[in-house]
Amino acid sequence: MISPIIVYEHGDMMIFESAVLAENYIEAVDVGNNEYIVYDSQGTLLNIGIDSQTSQVIITDNATNIKQPEQLQEILIDYLNIMKVDTYWIQNATLYDLVAQALHLYK
Known about the structure:
Blueprint: E1 5-9, E2 12-16, H1 19-25, H2 28-32, E3 37-39, E4 45-50, E5 57-61, H3 69-82, H4 87-92, H5 95-106
Helix pairs in contact: 3-5
């Protein structure tokens, strides 16, 4: 898993510098309701669950290593458009650039 971590929930995006920060922010009840899709910065899908012993949210690598960079790119573009980032810049940005800009603006 390569940080930052992007969490997507029904049209809303959150971005965290690490999985630990995301785990500490996300509510277990929402995880139990399958509210989130979680990506690393390269678009790899991550597992999100609840530790049965501690009831803490946990984010782990996905054993199948499914990559969905196009979906992550769409999520980031939607967010950056809402944040009024220059359209020309967005159209020419790499996924790495989009992630970095989203992290910068989300703070």
